[in-house]
Each structure stands twice: as C-alpha cells, then as structure tokens.
C-alpha cells in the first residue's frame, strides 16, 4: 500500500470512519452467515439441572425467575438460543411465587408437563396445564404462583435478544405477591375470546383486540390436539388441510386479526404421522423447537440426531431442517417469522436431500463434535441416539 493510501486509512480511523470496499463481503454476504449454530439440548439433562437449581437457588425479587436459558454455543457468553430468540426452562417449586413484574419483551409459556401453577397476567389468573400455550404480551404485568406441593417446569420463550439489539427494553417491578390468588379453570381472557370464530361485539376499538398481541391469554391443549387430529383425519379421507403429506400444523393466532399471537414471535404446533419425513427446508429467521411427545430424528444442516419428549433444538437462519417421525411426533415451534415478514426479509426454499441424509444418525460424529465444542464428553449435545 502506498503511503498516501495508508495515510488515508489512518485518517479514516482517526475520524471514526470505515470504508465499505474493505468489508463489503462481511456486511453483505451472498447468504446469511449466522454466528448461532444448530444445537440440541436434551430434556433428560436439562430437567435434572433445573431441579438442582430448584433445590439451591431461591426464586424472588431481584433475580425474579428461576429460568435456565439455553445458550447457543455459537454465541458464547450470551443466554440466547439464537440471535433473536430466548428460550428457557423455568422451574417453580412447591407453593413458590414468582413476583409480579413487567417488561417490553413479549413472552409465552409452553407447558411440557405438570399443572398447578397459575400465571396472573394483568390481574387475570391463567391456569397452566400440559400442552397449553400461555401468552404474556410485552408490558403486561405478570407473576406466577404454584398452588401444589409438587414442582412444575415449563418452556419460556421471549424476544429478549431482539429487544436488546433494538435497545427497546424497559422493565418495572410490581408487587412481591401475585395480585390474585384465585384459581379459575379458565381465565377471563379465554371466557371473552376463546370461542371459535366468535369475537365479542362489545369490545371497544381501543381495547385489547386492537393491540398487536392476542387478548386470548391461553391456548388449550384440547383445542390444539383436536385441530391437529382433524387435519390428519381429513387427509386420510382424501381432503386438503395438512401442510404436507402426514404433517399437520397449526399456528396460534390473534383472534381479532388472524395474525400471529405475538407481534415478534410465531408459535406453532406440528404433528407428524409415524414414518413421515418432512421436506427439507431452510429460511431466513431462526426458530426453537421442543418435542412435545413421541420420538424421531432431526436433521440440521445434514447432521442427524435422535430426539424424544422434551428435547429442545435451535435452528439458526438458513439452516436446513428435516424432521422424521418414528412414532406420532408432536413438536412445538416458535420463531421470529413475524419480524422477518413485516420487514420484507422473509425468504425460504426447499432443499434436495436424500432419505439417508435426512434420517441417518451418525453417533460417532455427534460425540466427537460435542467433545470438540465443549471440552467434555458429558454435556448437552454429546449423545446422538444413545440415550
Ligand atoms: Fe417476565
């Protein structure tokens, strides 16, 4: 480099300037280059760790929640599942209370197992039971209390990384106790909004239905299960309705608008018939999946692992995903798709993949990779099929 040019770069630096031409490839790559990596966390390892936290770490004001986030190995030091999504196992011991607070971030709970906890959202007590999706829209007050002598754990999903990137975060403490200790089977939000195809005429134009988040506080498993079952039954009768052959899917929506239940997070439930393998696809935006029931394999960028009930996996942008069901496989999925769609960044495509590439588990590869990634052999992703 001649001295005049070197001087120019020195002066750029001195004035806090950076030229595009030296870094175009990093700023504008030909396809997404996420730092987050595909990764699997096993429930059989996650849950005992949450239990140990339950025994050792009190829940209360300050820390607020006993929530253990999955931390993507590609984002070291950050409690993020992907660059936009937070996912955590929250554990509430017998009779414990998680105090009231509110924050800008949108949140939901998805219940893998258990019952007995009510989450009180803006004063409305919402029962939490297996298979239910419960919403905590941004800036809604919320606390949880466990009414039983048994602990309960569930999946929390939030847009924390996105809100952080956007510097859009506000947080306020509420009362140390939940505001309503009643334990109704159905919340007021469900009683008003939870009827198929029916919205209350009396709802004012500036009421909760006008907000970007759904006013329906809970989506109950009996409805989700019935909708998935009906899709597969219709398919068996020769009618349309499934996403693809043997693959039923429903999306949790805002009953007033038909859009996503939360403005930044898409939430869906998928059911695969035994023996079905999904079409391999990739898309912009990222997602987190949790196996709700059944077992099968997941292929993430061609690396195949066995999964069963409770297992969680993170899918970064443009990672090719194929899922195969051994028995009937139910999966909960959440993603940042509403953000990508609204900003015009949504893009997806199918990927050619052989059946073997989609479903052949390579255990030795998995174990070696896990050791390399973590320096130990006993960590979350170490075993690809030898459970
Ligand atoms: Fe919260």
UniProtKB/TrEMBL annotation:
List each copy of the Cupin type-2 domain by range.
90-156
Could you list this entry's UniProt keywords, alphabetically sorted. Dioxygenase, Oxidoreductase
Q: List the InterPro entries hit by this protein, alphabetically.
A: Cupin_2 (IPR013096), GDO-like (IPR047183), RmlC-like_jellyroll (IPR014710), RmlC_Cupin_sf (IPR011051)
Lineage: superkingdom: Bacteria
Pfam families xref list: Cupin_2
Residues annotated as region Disordered? 175-196
Please indicate if the UniProt record lists Nucleus as a keyword.
no
Q: Residue spans with biased composition (Basic and acidic residues)?
A: 178-193
Protein name, UniProt field: Cupin domain-containing protein
